[in-house]
Amino acid sequence: MKIIHVHHHYWPVIGGLENVVKALAEGMARLGHEVHVVTSTYGAEGRPREEVINGVHIHRVKSIRLGYPDLTYPLEVPRGILRDADVVHGHSQNSLFTVEMIREAKRLGARTVIHFMAVDSFNDHPSRLIRLLAPYYGRWSVRKAIEASDVRLVKSFRDMEILRNRYGIEAEYVPDGVDEGLLRKPNMAVEFRRKFGIQGPLIVYVGRLHKLKGIDVLIRALAIATKKEPSLKAVIAGPGDQRPYRELADKLGISDKVLFTGFVDEDTKVGAIDASIALTLPSVSDHVEVFSLAITEAWAREKPVIASAVGEIPYRVKHMVNGLLVPPGDPKALAEAMIALVQDRELSVRLGMEGRKSVFTWDEIVSKLLNIYTAR
């Protein structure tokens, strides 16, 4: 089967959705399918426009960008590749690049698939300008994606409900997976603690350092929690500007209780999760929580999650079943959840083991998608 994946970013750009597309494309190529990725040149300056990596044919097309990555518009369309495809799978209807490529693939007669993500999710965005203007773009992109797609997928039950209730369409649930090796990897907590010289209970955050991810809420919560649990520390692992968060920790007098690792390799990330009592995800907006791979990774290591009730999170994280839910932007509630798991290790273990039941591997997800592609 000739399969095309479409998104405005691909490797060497590293991010949640970029990693998802890479895992799917390479997984399908390993099974012997002819797999292509159509993407923009953004983030890949210096790389060839056409290359093959791990069996995946990559096509980078000239594009323009209107400020935000989602507003990337293709100036070229590889019609020959799209026309001959058995299926063209676009990732995120919020991506103008994806929508335009899928629309063209539909005109050329290809079978088209769209993975809808963060549908109508701009209403709680902290930026007043985005709250004002982005919903119009969001509704337009959803409608165009519906028109251009033969198959509609979601990785969020929230998005499934919105598509059904607001747009009158059904979509199939296909979440993200994890590598099989993550389930088999030995516990790496000791190595992580030795590497960074850390003792005592840990809370870990894994992801981008972005204002919508609520890192400031986490730091304020830690300042509250350490008044009752002075040995508690937080590990913040991921790329982004650390400066404002370091300054906040200094201001609150807890700079010695926060470890910023920056971007880390896979083993270090797994070690941080293994060494922790729980993964913490204090996001403040629906828009950034479509399907948190960090949650899946924590559950794969049998760790519970403390998370804000935004986006898809309350559909996956069930309070006192596989994690703890807290209101977004509430440091006091987050601190209380941290303290609860520090003081009740048996609860932490039980919640983490329950979360493990919800984890799928990439091989399972690839198999499911291939069945969807061929169903009529």
TrEMBL record:
It holds the Pfam family Glycos_transf_1. This is Glycosyl transferase group 1. GO terms for molecular function: glycosyltransferase activity. Gene3D superfamilies: Glycogen Phosphorylase B. Coiled coil: none annotated. SUPFAM superfamilies: UDP-Glycosyltransferase/glycogen phosphorylase. Residues 193-357 form the Glycosyl transferase family domain. Residues 14-179 form the Glycosyltransferase subfamily 4-like N-terminal domain. InterPro entries: Glyco_trans_1, Glyco_trans_4-like_N. Keywords: Transferase.
